[in-house]
Amino acid sequence: MKRWFPYPLIGLGLALLWLLLTESVSTAAFLLATALALAGCGTLLRLRFPKARLRRLGSVPGLLRDVVVEVFRSNNAVARIILRPSREDARRSGFVRVPLDMRSPHGLAALACILTATPGTVWVDYDSTDGTMLLHVLDLIDEDAWVRIVKDRWERRLMEIFE
Amino acid sequence: MSQAADLPLWAALPVAMLLVVGAGLALAGSIGLVTLKSFYDRMHAPTLGTTLGIGSILIASMLYFSVLQTRFVLHEILIGAFMVVTTPVTLMLLARAALYRDEREGNPDAPPRRPPPTKD
Amino acid sequence: MSATLISAAVLVAQILLVAAMGCAALRVLRGPRAQDRVLALDTLYVNGAMLLLVFGVRTGTTHYFEAALLISLLGFVATAALSKFLMRGEVIE
């Protein structure tokens, strides 16, 4: 099992994707889904894709819930900024450099997805030599506050899961 | 439009609301694309449409077809999952390309090349 | 009752989405720089996929779903390729 499916989560995801796409649970669909999962895992093995070690899966639902809440909140905030241009002069946008302690590539990818998917912040660049991340913030009030938000709200919890 | 008459009102109300809210968010994002001043500000506007905008339209579509065909129609999740994975990738690639171009031309929009020494 | 409600909502959503596509098209035409045009093109793709999903609700067929999926796939590939082109001057190194 370990030999054929070195990436169990990705294989399962590919199989589910196929079943959803064809919208059937017949034997043929299951066989094709398994073939797709095998092919995907084989390709990743050839590419020497780093394996993720997930620890403490119990904190994943809480994290997902917080991401959804944050997406709702920041959608509202950004829509207000766009539709009320009278306050345009008071608003300041800019770049923030955040020093990160996380080194796991999967954790960094998850952090990038979370930060970019919430409107108002975009992950721009990552410097792997000193581990700093460049973030662009639409409504920048205080640089240090943003560094604290990124580190306390997301990075610490992602490190619990991925490292 | 004829099948929509079979839809019970408890399903029609959220479907209608989600459709209008999703389209409204997409419009808000595109208005931001036109009105915001600099490129880096405009980069934030389309995320309104790609997160909650398309999300609510997908949920509306799932609810509509699931109730209408009395079975779970879930393949809209694929577009949602795809959007979640690809939007950060495209935005990041585009932001880095813009940063590179601005740095090479010495535009004032680009951030300082190295972190200021006070941060360390 | 629910038929009129759905058709009204679909009409409003279509008008809003076409207006959104118009805004994005305006930014594609105005620029001023290449990255603005690429960003607006990406928005145009996403808005187009949403419009197709609304068409699906309007006609009551799930066939539009495949078209929306394809548009979002192509939009991602196109934007990624264009961004790489802006960065390096070529798509495949």
UniProtKB/TrEMBL annotation, chain A:
Membrane topology type: Multi-pass membrane protein
Keyword Acetylation assigned: no
One Pfam family this sequence matches: MNHE
GO CC annotations, alphabetized: plasma membrane
UniProt KW Cell cycle keyword: no
Protein localization: Cell membrane
Keywords linked to the UniProt accession: Cell membrane, Membrane, Transmembrane, Transmembrane helix
Single GO MF annotation: monoatomic cation transmembrane transporter activity
Family indicated by similarity: Belongs to the CPA3 antiporters (TC 2.A.63) subunit E family.
Protein name stated in the entry: Na+/H+ antiporter subunit E
Automatic annotation (TrEMBL), chain B:
Keywords per UniProt: Membrane, Transmembrane, Transmembrane helix
InterPro entries: PhaG_MnhG_YufB
Pfam families in the record: PhaG_MnhG_YufB
Protein known as: Cation:proton antiporter
Keyword Glycosyltransferase: no
Transmembrane segments: 12-36, 48-67, 73-95
GO molecular function, one term: sodium:proton antiporter activity
Superkingdom field: Bacteria
From TrEMBL, chain C:
GO molecular function terms noted in the UniProt entry: sodium:proton antiporter activity
Main location: membrane
Membrane topology note: Multi-pass membrane protein
One Pfam family named in its UniProt record: MrpF_PhaF
Regions crossing the membrane: 6-26, 38-57, 63-87
Lineage top rank: taxon: Bacteria
Cell compartment(s), UniProt: Cell membrane
InterPro entries registered for this protein in UniProt: MrpF/PhaF-like
GO CC annotation, single: plasma membrane
Keyword annotations from UniProtKB, A to Z: Antiport, Cell membrane, Ion transport, Membrane, Transmembrane, Transmembrane helix, Transport
Family the UniProt entry places it in: Belongs to the CPA3 antiporters (TC 2.A.63) subunit F family.
Record protein name field: K+/H+ antiporter subunit F
Organism per entry: Neoroseomonas oryzicola
